[in-house]
Specification:
The structure is a single chain. By secondary structure, this protein is an alpha/beta fold. The protein has seven helices and ten strands. The protein has a six-stranded mixed sheet, sandwiched between helices. Strands 2-1-4-5 form a four-stranded antiparallel sheet, covered by helices on one side. A hairpin with a 2-residue loop joins strand 4 and strand 5. The C terminus is likely disordered.
C-alpha cells in the first residue's frame, strides 16, 4: 500500500526534510504520523501524494513507484487516494452536493455514477439532509464532513488526513475521528498526521513518530509519548 525504502528528501535550499526513512503501511491499517513542526511530516505526505519525489530511496504507493511515474500516471494514482486538509478547502459557491460531485466530474465520471455515489458518500458522513446547503451555512465540523465525503466519493484505497481536527473544537474533533475509524473499519487504509496528543493516546493505533527528518519510533498501539523515553524503532 505505502512503502518507503531508505528515503531522503533534500530541498534545493539545502534543507534535509527526511533522512533515510523506511517503513511499510499495509492495506487496511490506521496509522498516525506525529512530530513537531519541522519533523518532516508535511514532506512525507507530499511524497505519498506525489507532490514531491525523493532525493534518494524509493517510495511506492498503491502499486506505483513515485519517482519513476510518468505525468500521465499521476492522475490515476491520485484517484486511488482521498485527501482531507485542516482548512476544508471547499468551493464556497457550490452546494454540499456540488462540492462532492465536483471530485467525480473532474475524473469525467458519468452523470448516473455521480447521482449514485454522491448521496452514498453524504450518507456515510451523516450529511444527507445538508445536500443543498452552502459551506457558509455549515459548522466547522459539518464542513470537515463534506471534505471527508469528497475524499471518499471515489472509493479510494487510501485516505490521507492532514491535521483534520486542527480547526475544530474537542467534541467535534472526536466525531471526525470516529468517522475516520468507521471508514477504516470498512477497509480503507487511513493515514492521519496530527498534533492531537489526546486523540492519539486514546485511540491506540500504530504511531510513526518523526523528529528532524528521522524516523524516531514506529509502534503498534502507540502513544503520542515522550520521545526521549521511547525510541524503539521497528521496520
Amino acid at each position: 500500500m505505502v512503502h518507503l525504502k531508505n528515503v531522503t528528501k533534500k530541498y534545493s535550499n539545502g534543507t534535509v526534510a527526511l533522512k533515510e526513512v523506511s517503513f511499510k503501511i499495509d492495506k487496511g491499517e490506521f496509522v498516525f504520523i506525529i512530530g513537531s513542526s519541522g519533523s518532516g511530516k508535511s514532506s512525507l505526505l507530499k511524497l505519498i501524494m506525489r507532490e514531491e519525489t525523493p532525493t534518494e530511496g524509493e517510495v511506492y504507493v498503491n502499486g506505483y513507484n513515485i519517482a519513476d511515474m510518468s505525468r500521465k500516471e499521476v492522475p490515476f494514482l491520485r484517484r486511488s487516494m482521498g485527501v482531507v486538509f485542516q482548512d476544508f478547502r471547499l468551493l464556497q459557491n457550490k452546494t454540499v452536493y456540488e462540492n462532492v460531485a465536483f471530485t467525480l466530474q473532474i475524473t469525467e465520471a458519468l452523470p448516473k455514477e455521480i447521482r449514485r455515489q454522491v448521496p452514498t458518500a453524504l450518507a456515510l458522513v451523516g450529511l444527507s439532509k445538508k445536500a443543498k446547503a452552502y459551506p457558509n451555512e455549515l459548522s466547522g465540523g459539518e464542513q470537515q464532513r463534506v471534505a471527508l465525503a469528497r475524499a471518499l466519493v471515489n472509493n479510494p484505497q487510501l485516505l490521507i488526513a492532514d491535521e483534520p481536527t486542527g480547526n475544530l473544537d474537542p467534541e467535534t474533533s472526536w466525531e471526525i475521528m470516529k468517522l475516520l475509524s468507521e471508514i477504516n473499519y470498512r477497509g480503507t487504509t487511513v493515514i492521519v498526521a496530527t498534533h492531537e496528543k489526546g486523540i492519539v493516546d486514546s485511540m491506540k493505533k500504530r504511531v510513526i513518530a518523526l523528529d528532524k527528518g528521522n524516523l524516531l519510533r514506529d509502534q503498534e498501539k502507540g502513544l503520542y509519548g515522550d520521545e526521549d523515553k521511547n525510541r524503539q524503532v521497528h521496520a
